[in-house]
Amino acid sequence: MEREQLVHALQREEHHFSAQQMDTFYQFLENVERLGTPLGLTDAVGDALIDDHLLDSLRALSLIKNLRLNSLADVGSGAGFLGIVLAIACPEIQVTLIERMQKRAQFLVMMQMKLKLKNLMVIHDDVRNIKKRFDAITFRALTTIEPALVQILLNISPRLLAYKGRKDVVTTEVELLQSKGYHCEVVALSSLSLAKERHLLIVEP
């Protein structure tokens, strides 16, 4: 991956980051490209890695910043999307990555050390075992979220921020969650250059 690819992509989406943040993003993506396939994290490289993972992770950035969170947990972080991306973009937020798979958790710990992210920590465990509380929980959930999982997550945070896909799929999911008594809000995540439809599903008790 060329650094210019990253710079151009972020400019295309009108994201503005410091030189240090740009360096950290680039170093992170280089490591994902190099280790993603061997570790079974992702096969994406180059523009696909930037568009489908980095830029996709940043689509709710302005909304997350407006929430003025002190802490955030990213569940099932995998290769670090969303969590590491948000930790780089939001140094004011203490980000915790919760990953139950050992190989992925080891990669996340290595990234935390290499990138020197002081606002990032990694927990290798199942989210069902977590007792610590967070201001919000994020996760990429292109499949249906089960109400049982929602209840587990709301035990440790008052607000869930789920990155979702098409509106029609999200609408069906919202109907199920609302029937269980949860408050739901769906926010369209716009993009200047990405074609894939994305929505943020916000769930509260």
Automatic annotation (TrEMBL):
Enzyme class: transferase
Pfam families hit by this protein: GidB
UniProt keyword list: Cytoplasm, Methyltransferase, rRNA processing, S-adenosyl-L-methionine, Transferase
Xref: InterPro entries: rRNA_ssu_MeTfrase_G (IPR003682), SAM-dependent_MTases_sf (IPR029063)
Coiled coil (residue ranges): none
Entry-linked Gene3D superfamilies: Vaccinia Virus protein VP39 (3.40.50.150)
GO cellular component: cytosol
Subcellular location: Cytoplasm
Superkingdom of the source species: Bacteria
Predominant location category: cytoplasm
Ligand binding (S-adenosyl-L-methionine): G76, F81, R140
EC number: 2.1.1.-
Protein's UniProt keywords contain Heme: no
Entry's transmembrane regions: none
An MF annotation (GO) of this entry: rRNA (guanine-N7-)-methyltransferase activity
UniProt key word Acyltransferase: no
NCBIfam families according to UniProt: rsmG_gidB
Record family assignment: Belongs to the methyltransferase superfamily. RNA methyltransferase RsmG family.
Protein task: Specifically methylates the N7 position of a guanine in 16S rRNA.
The protein's name: Ribosomal RNA small subunit methyltransferase G
Organism encoding this protein: Entomospira entomophila
